[in-house]
Amino acid sequence: MSSYPTTWRRPPQIIPDRRLRIAVQIAALVYLVLAVGSVEVNWMRVSEGLERGQRFVMGFLQPDFTSRWGDISQGLIESLTMTLTSTVVGVLISIPIGIGASRNIVPRPVYLFCRAVIAISRSLQELIVAIFLVAMFGFGPFAGFLTLSFATIGFIGKLLADEIEEVDETQVEAIRSTGASWFQMLNYAVQPQIMPRLIGLSLYRLDINFRESAVIGIVGAGGIGATLNTAIDRYEYDSAGAILLIIIAIVMVAEYSSSYLRKFLQ
Amino acid sequence: MTNISSSDWTYRTPKHRLFLWLGWFALVALFVWCWRIMSQDTIWAFVWDAPAQALDIGSRMTPPEWGYLPELMKPLWDTLNIATLGTIGGVLIAIPVAFLAARNTTPSATILRPIALFIIVTSRSINSLIWALLLVAIIGPGLLAGIIAIALRSIGFVGKLLYEAIEETDPRQIEAITATGAAPTQVLTYGIVPQIMPALWSISVFRWDINIRESAILGLVGAGGLGLKMNASLAILAWDQVLVILILILATVVVSEWVSAQVRKAII
């Protein structure tokens, strides 16, 4: 009687060659050792900081909403108004750019130009854009509004263009064969197909813009981020905890209500 | 013969149209109201002055000071390390959290699952820059604060996508393993893990790509890497150095995006 093996191992899938696999594993290990080795940690400072960390956790568990409420509410109002206005303006600008960036309905030069605009907007980080716009337009929510609008253009423009490129061509052809002009074709064949997606994307972007508005305040673009930065700089961890809890609560509410709204609209 | 063309065909009823019109009107009113509140403190003189300022900054930025580039290699290495080590740490923590959060693997749906979901939501709603701001204040400036900030932010992202992948596993394969009399841990290793492995790799690489972008700017709040250099250059208004840093960040992002696309293509 021949003896069959009692165990089985699935052969490796991604890198079948054994020598190459071992080489990759050794390279990864060497990199990890080098990377961990180059992290200099001042353990004295860390152990001193742990006491502060404890205070922060306490502040998070017992947030202080009242003593800085004036500043917090001011920051919140700035953040919320900035979020709404920048989403509306950003979406309004990104609609023509998104249409221009769809290969199937515009001539090639327009397509390339609009794709370039989208690529620029997407590859620049919000925070870096905010630094420049604060330098140009001065401190305050107006610079933040411009930053978020600029970031919205790239996001909505790209996803809208991808959506338009995937519309049902038969409907476009049907409208075209009635002798419709380019704008009528857009209005009757493309717009009804992309409208639910556009509304969904705008709501999603509203959510993202609020989160980002909490960050760009750190470089002076107004909003709740500026208040948070001040609270942390002054070691007022109970106020910082309160701000963080408010941000988490608003993000959760925004996420749930936007997913509910999207379901309702479809 | 009845005249059927007396009224034009419309897609919506008048009531529906009125409702829709009111909705748009409310949005416009809300926008105007928000705009007034937001811009009441804006100093318009600075806004009208902006093109001149932009030209000024533009002229100071060019030509980029390439001699600054060798000095940036160490911060670039730090930035890559923050992203990579942070991703590894985040993924290692996210895996147990995802198993606790998935409906089909959680040991207790009433206590542990809500806790795991709360961890995921908290980590997702706070940007890594805010985590870095906190950690720099707590454990001091440096790479460690950046690594932990990236890891904390990655938990939510990886955890959410991974627990959705776990919930979408094929129950028949798990049933087949269970039917052989396998213990719960064996069901996990032979029924679930092989199914989610490709998802785990592609989520991790995707997050690594995002983390490269984020770690480049974490230094602005003192967490090491390229952002630290950028903060220093901004503080002395050396815009030509800032431009070199920006070009380097852009190049790094493009390369990391390419790497992550290649790896994900190889996995799927």
TrEMBL record, chain A:
InterPro entries, per the entry: MetI-like, MetI-like_sf, PhnE/PtxC
This protein's record includes keyword Nucleus: no
Domain of life: Bacteria
One cellular component term from this protein's GO annotations in UniProt: plasma membrane
Transmembrane segments: 20-39, 84-106, 127-156, 240-261
CDD domains in the cross-refs: TM_PBP2
Keywords: Cell membrane, Membrane, Transmembrane, Transmembrane helix, Transport
Main subcellular location of this protein, as a coarse class: membrane
UniProt domain ABC transmembrane type-1: residue ranges: 76-258
Intracellular or extracellular location(s): Cell membrane
GO MF assignments: ABC-type phosphonate transporter activity
Membrane topology per record: Multi-pass membrane protein
Family: Belongs to the binding-protein-dependent transport system permease family.
NCBIfam families the record matches: PhnE
Designated name of the protein: Phosphate-import permease protein PhnE
TrEMBL record, chain B:
Span of domain ABC transmembrane type-1: 76-260
Molecular function in Gene Ontology: ABC-type phosphonate transporter activity
Localization per Swiss-Prot or TrEMBL: Cell membrane
Membrane spanning residue stretches: 18-38, 82-102, 114-137, 216-236, 242-261
Tagged with keyword RNA-binding: no
Membrane topology label: Multi-pass membrane protein
Principal subcellular localization: membrane
Gene3D superfamilies, sorted: MetI-like
Pfam families in the cross-refs: BPD_transp_1
Protein's UniProt keywords contain Transport: yes
Keywords, ordered alphabetically: Cell membrane, Membrane, Transmembrane, Transmembrane helix, Transport
Entry GO terms, CC: plasma membrane
Organism superkingdom: Bacteria
Family: Belongs to the binding-protein-dependent transport system permease family.
NCBIfam families: PhnE (TIGR01097)
Protein name per the record: Phosphate-import permease protein PhnE
Native source organism of the sequence: Pacificibacter marinus
Taxonomic lineage of the native organism: Bacteria, Pseudomonadati, Pseudomonadota, Alphaproteobacteria, Rhodobacterales
